[in-house]
Design brief:
heterodimer, A: about 575 residues, alpha+beta, Rossmann fold, Phosphatase 2c, domain 1, Heat Shock Protein 90, five-stranded parallel beta sheet, five-stranded antiparallel beta sheet, 17 helices, elongated, B: about 110 residues, mainly alpha, Four Helix Bundle (Hemerythrin (Met), subunit A)
Chain lengths: ~575, ~110
């Protein structure tokens, strides 16, 4: 047993002498008090480990002194043994009630005293260990909450760059300070549409936030570079599969929204049904999850097929995480799908459905505990062009001046057959900060020129076929066949960037295909006329408003567009 | 003088063993401490202060018990009880008995050092 310090409080000098002799022989330190008052003072100054306290003493008796010392000690455990010759049960009980931990009756027996001291030392050690562990737990908990708040803040920074504030979106995220596993992302596509991502990670806090961060990065990064949503889903699935431990995954509802085609493509894995509400006839269409969550399957088994649904302006899509359906009231009942669907049945005012859901869930939960995340989003189809294309923030890189560079990107037949080069080309062009702001328009130009070079040049398809529906179908079956049979051919993409004085530059984009070319004189004329405002077809006006010049060259198999920036806004 | 009439002999020898060379010191402290207690008891009795009677007798009882002077402790206990109940009638004879017992205990203890 380690050496400890024991305070003896007794008014009998002979008793003190006897006790201190016994205790010293056991190897402990002794300090002595002659009355209750002295005992309190010595406790404060000497911090003894155990106190032997006589009951009846002058100045202040043992019970009063015990109460005072226990108060000073607070959380510290100071075992107090009452020294007593009191023999009746009530008096002994009174000693324990006054805060004593044990008692020793006179005449003292040194064997019993040793056993009691040893027992109390064990108790004190256990108490100290327990307190240390409690403090460690409290400290760890503080630490964990802090880390989660930091993770949440980092996540908010990563995820904020989206367009959730677009005028056709309404959303609700539960306001927990700690990351709760729900993710809501929305981004404009360079081609003008929108990608929306509602995710629900298994778990809360750090494990969920860790998966959410690369996911948001991939979603925003790939969307901005013009990747198709399927490719983005594959990339996210692969990333989550490789970084998340088994049993962790992300349920998701993902939407590719096109304002021009007025439809949505939806991929859903492991999330509750979404509702599509038509504006005119107030019909409700349920869209059901048909996939496993993201991060479960390897990319060979991963199914990226999406369902298409047409949406007219004013039609709205409602999506939610299971937190809405599983919200519980004080009795422990769930809000449930029935209640949710009931809100759509005969809404007094269908415009108010979003608020009605919010309010209904809040009222239902009442004072009940909010244990899950309640995420809700409403997306409305709008007329093409109604939304302002969100301005991409031009961040200044380490090189602020326009720089000179040039690249040739040659695509052989295998690449042409299987690979969409547009995201890569966009990525290179987006290295010029000033061009980022017009990524959407640039995308349209590159897409148009590339598809011309590839389809008309390499595959030798006749564009005049596309004038009627049958021709359209024929065009695409022909395209499919020629793509399979393709034996030779190539497309060269040449991009050249030339500085043009302070804050200005020229981007030259050339596409050279291996095709036969065409009589381009009329095309060049078209462009010039368009520049005078006489031409009204789609695509060309945009190209003309963006490009300083557009010229077909050679046999017509070569086209060169020049973009001068900053672009004068028209 | 029969030691066994006044002391618990087993306890007394254990005490001697525990205290080793400090046994004489313990006896001296006990005797010095206890000597004024008979006078103090008598004074408290004269002034009919039953609380004081009880406290002094209690303390004397504890000290005697620890010295294994069982007969003395018993007498003190009787006085202490009377003090607790506030019944001081006939106490002075008991105080006399305590004084006589103490002087015997004193002689025995002194013979041991």
């Amino acid at each position: 047993m380690d050496q400890i310090r024991i305070l003896i409080a007794d008014d009998n000098a002979s008793d003190r002498l006897l006790l201190s002799k016994i205790i010293k022989k056991q190897g402990h330190d002794v300090i002595q008090a002659e009355n209750g008052k002295q005992a309190i003072d010595l406790y404060s100054s000497e911090k003894p480990d155990i106190i032997l306290m006589d009951v009846l003493m002058p100045e202040m008796n043992g019970k009063e002194a015990t109460q005072a010392i226990k108060e000073i000690a607070g959380e510290e455990l100071v075992p107090i043994i009452f020294l007593t010759s009191l023999a009746d049960a009530q008096s002994l009980a009174d000693c324990l009630d006054a805060g004593g931990d044990d008692f020793l009756t006179k005449p003292y027996n040194h064997i019993i005293l040793k056993a009691k001291i040893d027992a109390l030392v064990r108790m004190k050690k256990m108490h100290t260990t327990m307190q240390k562990q409690r403090d460690t737990i409290a400290e760890n908990n503080q630490h964990m909450l802090h880390e989660q708040r930091v993770a949440k803040a980092v996540f908010d920074n990563v995820a904020h760059s989206g367009c959730l504030d677009a005028s056709n979106i309404r959303y609700m995220l539960s306001p927990l300070a700690v990351f709760n596993g729900d993710v809501l992302l929305a981004a404009r596509k360079p081609s003008g549409g929108m990608h929306i991502f509602l995710g629900d990670f298994t778990g809360h806090g750090l494990p969920a936030a860790i998966g959410a961060m690369p996911m948001a990065e991939i979603f925003y990064g790939m969307t901005a570079k013009g990747f198709a949503l399927r490719d983005i889903l594959r990339e996210i699935n692969l990333k989550l599969k490789s970084i998340l431990p088994v049993g962790f995954f992300c349920c998701a509802a993902v939407v590719d929204l096109s304002f021009t085609k007025r439809n949505i493509s939806v991929w859903m894995g492991g999330v509750p049904d979404c509702y599509l509400l038509t504006d005119g006839s107030k019909q409700l269409k349920e869209i059901r999850s048909s996939h496993l969550p993201l991060g479960v399957l390897g990319n060979e088994q991963f199914d990226d097929s999406m369902t298409e649904h047409s949406m007219e302006p004013g039609d709205r899509l409602f999506m939610w995480s299971d937190g809405i359906i599983e919200a519980r009231n004080e009795q422990g009942d769930m809000f449930g799908e029935e209640r949710l669907k009931g809100l759509f049945d005969n809404p007094d005012d269908s415009e108010a459905i979003f608020d009605a859901i919010k309010e209904s869930v809040n009222t239902f939960v009442g004072e009940g505990e909010r244990d899950d995340d309640t995420t809700l989003i409403e997306v409305r189809m709008v007329e093409d062009g109604e939304l302002v294309q969100s301005q991409v923030e031009v961040s200044k890189g380490p090189v602020s001046k326009p720089i000179d560079w040039e690249m040739d990107f040659k695509l052989g037949i295998e690449t042409l057959r299987h690979f969409n080069p547009l995201p890569l080309i966009m990525h290179v062009m987006m290295e010029v900060p000033a061009l980022r702001a017009m990524g959407g328009q640039l995308y349209t130009v590159v897409a148009e020129l590339y598809s011309n070079a590839f389809e008309h040049g390499v595959l030798k398809l006749d564009s005049s076929l596309k004038q009627n529906p049958q021709g359209f179908a024929e065009y695409y079956s022909l395209r499919e066949r020629r793509l399979k049979e393709l034996q030779e051919g190539e497309v060269i993409v040449r991009i050249q960037h030339i500085p043009n004085g302070e804050g200005q530059g020229i981007l030259k984009l050339s596409l050279i295909d291996s095709g036969d070319g065409f009589d381009f004189h009329s095309k060049n004329r078209e462009f010039n006329e368009a520049n005078q405002g006489n031409f009204c077809g789609r695509g060309i006006p945009l190209i003309s408003s963006l490009c300083h010049s557009l010229e077909y060259k050679g046999a017509g198999n070569e086209v060169e567009a020049e973009i001068h920036w900053p672009v004068k806004s028209s | 003088m029969n030691k066994a009439e006044h002391f618990d002999l087993d306890s007394l020898s254990m005490l001697e063993e525990v205290m080793e060379d400090e046994f004489p010191e313990l006896i001296r402290v006990f005797l010095v401490d206890s000597a004024p207690r008979c006078d103090a008891l008598r004074q408290a009795n004269d002034s009919q202060n039953s609380d004081a009677v009880r406290e002094i007798a209690h303390s004397f009882k504890g000290a005697s018990a620890n010295l294994s002077a069982v007969r003395l402790a018993e007498l003190c206990f009787e006085v202490e009880s009377a003090g607790r109940e506030g019944q001081l009638d006939g106490i002075s004879e008991k105080i006399d008995a305590i004084e006589q017992e103490f002087s015997k205990v004193q002689s025995i203890l002194q013979s041991m050092i």
